[in-house]
Amino acid sequence: MGTNSNVHTRLATINDQDFITSLLPRLTEFGPPSWRDVAGMISTDTQILVAKLSNIHPGTIILVAEDDQKIPLGFIHLQGGNDYYYKEKHAHISDVIVVDKAAGRGIGLILIREGEAWARAQGFRWLTLSVFAQNVRARELYSRLGYGEDIMKYVKEL
Question: What three-state secondary structure class fits 65?
Answer without folding.
Answer: strand
